[in-house]
Amino acid sequence: MTLSQLRTFALVARLGSLHAAAEALGVSEPAVSSALAALRQDLGDPLFVRAGGGIALTPGGRALADYAQDIVGLADQARWEVSNAQNDAGRLKIVSTAPFAEHAAGRLLDLFTKRVPGASVDVVVESAEDLGSLLQERAYDIALGARPTAPAGTAVTELRLECVPFLRYQRALVASAAHPLAPLHGPVSVARLLDRPWFAGPAGIQDSSEEGRWLASMGVAPEIIRLSSETEALAAVRAGEGIMLALGHIVRADIQAGVLVRLPVVGTPVTGLWWASTLDHRRTTTLARTLQRFAGTADATAAMVAPGGSRGLERRGSKFHVALWS
Fold first, then answer.
1. How far apart are CA 102 and CA 210, in angstroms?
2. Closest Cα to residue 13, out of 57, 58, 49, 71?
3. What structural domains does the chain harbor?
4. pTM
5. Which residues contact 277 (CB under 8 A, 6 or more apart)?
6. pLDDT value, residue 314
7. pLDDT for 131
8. CB atoms within 10 A of CB 325
9. Adjacent-strand bridge partners of 92
10. Pair 278, 162: CB distance under 8 Å
C-alpha cells in the first residue's frame, strides 16, 4: 500500500468514477486502474464494483475511504508544514476582532510568548465578517475574538474550521453616576434609551456579535457613535456624554467606586464568548494549535481579565498590531 495508491483511491471514492479521477490527477485511466488493482490485491478486498456508469464501494471500500482521506490529508499537511518551516518557524500570524485586541490580546500573547520560547506573533485587527475567508486564504494562522461567520451563500461547515471558545464575557449598559439616567430603577426597556448617545469602539456593535443579536431581539437600532477605541468611548461615558455596552470586567472597578452605574435594562448584561479559530487539524499549524489550547488555560484566563496593565495595542497605518514586550 502506497500513498499514491491511497490518493488515487480516495479521489475515485469521492468522485465515484475512475475516468473523473484520472482527469483530476492528469493521468490515464489505465494508470488509475493499475493503482487500484495493486491496492485491491494488497488488501484482499475488491473495494468497489462498477455500477450504473460509475462505481459503488464495498463495505471494505467504505472503511478504506475514510482512512484514505485522513492519511492523504495528513500527508499534505506534513508536506505544507515542512515546506514552510524554514521561513515561518516560530512565527504566528494572528487576526483578531477589535474588542479582543484592545482588551485581552496583549496580555494573552505576552504570556504565550513567555511560555513558548522562540515564538513570535503579529496581530492584525479585521472585521468579524472577514475572519473566515482570511483563514481560508491562509492569510492568518489563527483568529481570536468573534467566531468566524461564513460569507453569503456559504455554509459555516464548508469553511472547515476548528472553533474553540476560551473566554466568556459580559457586556452591561453603563452611564456616569452623574448622568440623568443613573437614578433609573429597572427593569427598563432599551427603547427608552434610544434618544441618548451610545458610544462604542471602532467596530461598533456588529450584527454577528451577541450584543448585536440582543439588540435585534429587542427590535431596536440605536445610533452608535464609534470612537477610535473602546477606552476612548468609555472616557466619554465617564464624562457624562452618553452610555455604552461595556465589558463587565473592564468597568467593575469604576462601578464599585461609584464612578459608573449599571443601567437596569431588560436583557442585560449580555453574555458572549471569545473564540480561537483555526483551519481544521489537517491544515493548520502546530503553533496555531498550541495557542488555541493555551488560550483556554486557567493562567491565560487570569491574565486576560486581570485589572490594570498595558493592553499592548498599537496603531500602524490603517490597521492595528499588538506590540509585545517583556
1. 18
2. 57
3. 3-87 (1.10.10.10), 90-167+273-322 (3.40.190.10), 168-271 (3.40.190.290)
4. 0.69
5. 131, 135, 142, 143, 144, 147, 148, 161, 162, 163, 164
6. 46
7. 92
8. 8
9. 121
10. yes
Phi, psi dihedrals of residue 4, rounded to the nearest 5°: -60, -40
231 contacts: CB under 8 Å, gap ≥ 6: 102, 311
Residue type at 82 in one-letter notation: V
CB burial of residue 60 (10 Å; 0-12, 13-18, 19+): middle
Exposure string over 209-222, b if 16+ CB within 10 A, otherwise e: bbbbebbeeeeeeb
Nearest-angstrom CA–CA distance, 208 and 132: 13
Local mean pLDDT, 10-residue blocks, the chain (326 residues): 89 86 87 90 89 84 86 74 57 92 91 88 89 90 91 68 94 96 90 94 89 92 93 96 95 95 95 94 87 95 78 43 41
Specify the amino acid at residue 295: A
Q: Please choose, from the candidates 135, 287, 125, 268, the residue with its C-alpha nearest in 3D space to the C-alpha of residue 203.
A: 125
Q: Is the sign of the CA dihedral 11, 17, 18, 19 positive or negative?
A: negative
The strand pair at 224-226 and 198-200 is best described as: parallel
Q: What pLDDT was estimated at residue 155?
A: 64
For the chain, give the secondary structure using H, E and C: CCHHHHHHHHHHHHHCCHHHHHHHHCCCHHHHHHHHHHHHHHHCCCCEEEECCEEEECHHHHHHHHHHHHHHHHHHHHHHHHHHHHHHCCEEEEEECHHHHHHHHHHHHHHHHHHCCCCEEEEEECCHHHHHHHHHCCCCCEEEECCCCCCCCCCHHHHCEEEEEEEEEEEEEEEECCCCCCCCCCCECHHHHCCCCEEECCCCCCCCCHHHHHHHHHCCCCCEEECCCHHHHHHHHHCCCCEEEEEHHHHHHHHHCCCEEECCECCCCEEEEEEEEEECCCCCCHHHHHHHHHCCCHHHHHHHHCCCCCCCEEEECCEEEECCCC
